[in-house]
Amino acid sequence: MSSRQATGGYDPSGIDLDAWTVLEAELEATIPHYDRVNTWMTFGQDRRWRAGVAAHAEPGMKVLEVGCGPGSFAETIRNVELTCLDPSPEMLRVAKKRVDAVRAAQGESPAAYVEAIAESIPLPDASFDRVFCLFSFRDFQDKRKGLEEIFRVLKPGGQLVICDAGKGNAIHGLFGRFWMATGVQVIARRITGEKDHPWKGLARSYTHYGTNAYYRKMLKQVGFSQVKGRLLWPFLMASRFSGVRPANPE
Ligand SMILES: C[S@@+](CC[C@H](N)C(=O)[O-])C[C@H]1O[C@@H](n2cnc3c(N)ncnc32)[C@H](O)[C@@H]1O
Description:
Layout: E1 10-11, E2 14-15, H1 17-29, H2 34-41, H3 45-54, E3 62-66, E4 81-86, H4 89-105, E5 112-115, E6 128-134, H5 143-153, E7 154-165, H6 170-181, H7 183-192, H8 199-207, H9 212-222, E8 225-231, E9 238-244
Parallel strand pairs: 3-4, 3-6, 4-5, 6-7
Antiparallel strand pairs: 1-2, 7-9, 8-9
Helix pairs in contact: 2-7, 6-8
The structure holds S-adenosylmethionine.
């Protein structure tokens, strides 16, 4: 019996496979309305948050996005050698169409696409300058394992940047849960026109998500240095974490 049974398969360290399989189906169901709901539920801040992550890359860098979804971030990052990873073939199909069209229009070569989970990345050690996770870390089955794999594929001196829902502490988390259970549900219902839209279930992944301090500690335990993790102003709805794979491990 799973120790997560009382919480439907979730806790801050990860998600049981059965619950994750349901979550993946819900994520795929968001695709047609994903960007619009995000923009409304974040008061338009999602674009600013994505730009804040992209700013961590420099031209020519090898960049891996873990959990690329339908390509909402990947289509915005310019002048890098991009690999998009996601476990969902449908997400990858939509992302490839969108991202490669934008890249072609900019005169850039197509991105690479990898169907996999963060916990088992089928890519060589020390091969990326940057790894970015936008709104996907919350969905990892095993967060520590995912971070270990990301650490492995980063070059020494390379950096991980995660942007996800914000949970400064338990009290702040209550406000987030309230917003997920009320405003987000109204927005998703209006935009999708469906009573049983997928954002009903997606609120679960926020409810059981850990605090910033919890994931900062995990990043350090995995071996990242220069670990940072804070809520993003003005609305404190998202957090951004970063950590570096040390160039000279002790
Ligand atoms: C909300 S979407 C994120 C989309 C995009 N990154 C963005 O900027 O909005 C979350 C994505 O994480 C993916 N995902 C879920 N579990 C994952 C895992 N264990 N490893 C990697 N990606 C995962 C899902 O398939 C989904 O496409």
